[in-house]
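Example 393, ligand adenosine monophosphate.
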Amino acid sequence: MIVLAINAGSSSLKFTGYRMPEEEVLISGVFQRIGIDNSFYTIKINGEKFEEDVDLPDHKKAVEILLDELIKHKVVNSLDEIEAVGHRVVHGGEKYSDSVVVTEDVKKIIDELSDIAPLHNPANLMGIEVFEKMLPHAKNVAVFDTAFHQTMATDAYLYAVPYEWYTNYGVRKYGFHGTSHKYLSQRLSSILGRDDCKVITCHLGNGGSISAIKDGKCVDTSMGFTPNAGIVMGSRSGDIDVSIIPYVMKKTGENLDEIMNDLNKKSGFLGISGVSSDSRDVEIGINAGNPRCILAQSMYINTIVQYIASYYALLGGCDAICFAGGIGENSINTRKEILEALEVFGIKCDYDANNCRGKEVMISTKDSKIPCYVIPTDEEVMIARDTYNLTVN
Ligand code: AMP
């Protein structure tokens, strides 16, 4: 059975085509700058990658091209062979603790949740609606970023604010990157050879989050009501004292939207280094002795270590830690600094093993008290699995 895994953003559409249940990747790629000038798409198939410049006025055009390419490259002989499409949806609120087949009711809830995920849910919903039109025979499945975190207990997900903020407006910690954390915890379980384990998963990309997971269930996670909470990120502040907001508004004359833009787009690595939100640029700055790049990295490591240390206590110990995401999978120096800062837990970095990028490997020594791993995450295969399972059952 052929399944498409789709991640639709406001100006992009990522796709991977699978043969299921074999989980064989047949094709993958991304349409970029949809609705903007200079739009283009890249496709990877049979080990080859190519790029085309093309006018992409909207997502419908991107999907039309995608379906043409699937036929052209003989991924399918007829579009009827695509039986199901799985969609990444960022916010499932409290309603969804698992993936679901899309119905009118599901779409209504995704739409209602746009109130708390205005940057993501509208684009995710648009992706679903385009595929409903273009492949009317196929089942659509929504796979939520928040779903995995729904196992958090009330004392983990509530903020100590007036209780009515929660009951009336849904103010609580939801957590994000759930599909990635679930994949990582399943890989760690499989590496450790048992399901009853306590693990800490670090998804470190441009956005970053850390989760404490016990027996495959999320106990706590660093992102919160929105993806701006938790550790220092590329351009997001992570946790701050909220009283800073009215104070800086008064000082600068900026309005709330402008301040929120500062906290989402001008903070993190970018805000502190003054150089870039990309950790590679910050690393170049560090090597050149730029003190603000050195400071940004040091703050980044501090917040990560603080979360890992507190999750160690929360879980009552830890059987394994893993690193994923663009930084977690590729930044040798970041992983080294984190493991060195965790030496107090008996963790020992294996410097040779850590000298790697983008592959699954143990990066702690054999006598390290907690084994640590790099695990390239795979959110797409999780989307394809859930989509297949909900389609065949
Ligand atoms: P993601 O959001 O998961 O795509 O991750 C993006 C982040 O990964 C950016 O900060 C990149 O600088 C970082 N990254 C990607 N490749 C590398 C690399 N080879 N070395 C260091 N960081 C990298």
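Summary: Residues 2-144 form a domain with the Nucleotidyltransferase; domain 5 fold (CATH 3.30.420.40).
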